[in-house]
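Components:
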Amino acid sequence: MRLSRLQVKLIERIAATIPLTLAVALAAFVLMRAIPGDPVDIMMGEGASSSGEEVAALRTQLGLDEPIYRQLSGYLKGLLRGDLGYSIIRSRPVAEMIWEALPATIELAVYAMLFALALGIPVGVVSALKHNTAFDRVSTAVSFVGVSLPAFWLGIVGILVFSMTLGWMPTSGRIPYGLEPRHITGFLTLDALLTGNMPALGSALRHLCLPAVTLGLGVAAVVARVTRSSMLDVLGSDYVLFARAKGVPEPAVTIRHALRNAMIPTVTLVGLQFGSLLGGNMIVETIFGWPGLGRVVVDAIFARDYPVVQASVMVYALTFVMVNLITDLLYTVLDPKIALQ
Amino acid sequence: MGQASLRTDELYQGTLARSANIPVLSPAGRAGRAHGARAGLWPRLMSHRGGRLGLIIVLAYVAVAVAAPVLAPHPPGAVNLAGRLTPPAIGTGNLLGTDQLGRDILSRIMHGARVSMLVGLATVSISAAVGVGLGMVAGYYGGALGRVLARFTELLLAFPYLIFVIGAMSVMGPGFWNLVWALSFKGWVEFYRLSRALVMSEKNREYVEAARVLGRSDSVICVREILPNIVSSILVLGTLRMGNMIVMESSLSFLGLGIPPRMPAWGSMINDGRRYMLTSPWVATFPGLALALLVLGMNLLGEGLRDVLDPKMMEG
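Structure:
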């Protein structure tokens, strides 16, 4: 079978992710060992009464007294077998922890993105159609403010207004204990739908609301701006002029001719933003007590839980590389003029 | 903030770097700008509505930050337990109220502006100096150094910024310069990529050829011929990154990993105020507003500069 140029490039790109991910894992290993204090120090606490022997025994048990190169080779050998190791603090497999936390993070990112698109695209399109009107000016100003609001502050204010004062939303977590739908995918809203568990669906959505809006507002602003500017470009193009001259009704011009082409930059943006939503939401997860990967990794850094940090950083790096690759591919599909780099 | 920072980050990368590959000034916008047109920058920025507003906001913050010791009604660390959690009021001496230790919030915001802006300025300056220096060398000569740096920057980009900085701050402990170094360690990559790409496109232009024919050395060509032609793009990136770095600083201080607690910083003020949100919302609200307004000003100024320096690049 002959491979096309695109396929060869694709295989090259995927192959290139392997050394990159390994390098990131290595960097995480070194960074974590450089942090003063090992997990045992943190577990025992400062000035703890435990004897030196106990501490030494615990270090031996956890393999922390082995020379650093032995720890590293053990870690790398484990990786090759697909074994991410055991969490030192929680004494359970790291893969299991990540597997549990990842759906929470992805679900939050998906809803944040849905919110951003549902708000950003219509606002961008209307701004472009009503270019230089009051609506356009106001939405441009608002989107500027939206980009500038720091998410962690927005989250706190959201909790104050909507949870504490108005009591509309829960303050934290994904779903109350005992209300979880039967585990199928780990995505609570999807599982609730699949099992027809409506109370769980309602609760999960209510829990998602504030964090998703906090996370998605900035993205909505960017989406609105990009949609507006690309829509303006397209509306001024010759083929739109031609469609109009041909007598195509205005709504059809807008939707079939203009919007479709104007979406190319937005789609690319969505890819990039989705990556950043997945990789940059530790703060929002921390504020909302969201049991996702961001929380896991921040807690693990504070507890010096080496295996957990190393593995999560690798997952993040892999996500980053994958999202970039998918975005590039989408770009190539949407606009064949651009060759896969 | 990882998130917030990425917002501006993606705003920049997403709309510019992706759709236009790199924020290179168009040849038309560049023609003759190294001389002549530079003089027109100021009036053009002042006639750009967003840019003007951004400049006014940023200058106001700079003025407050510089004059904070004189302007602030109280010392930022002055504890007054009798007057803790006083609500904002005119004429009480605590215009924006006090925090849980009775410290004046307005004074702390003013002093916090110094910290935030200094972190932003120091981080962007170090990142730009390192990034542009390496980028020019790699762009001009290419070769082995370019290849090594390409791999290294890929690695840094794949490493989540926030996790990296949290990890680095755990190594070094909270502190002003620790934070600056941790942020700069990854911050230079963007300046590197931008200046490398710019130099690669500039180095084959006629004026560089001419300088080469005249027998100028490579370093003279880079510094005296190419640098003036790419400096405005770097200025735009720097302004946009500044707001970003300030959000990063606040987020880390919010987590207790940025500026040490004895220094007033907006992020740690917001974190302090979290616990009193229901009863005394002003403690966390005002520092957050101060932060949001400064970031807004920086973004407006950055985009204004971009529009003015190259009208063809407007809105990506």
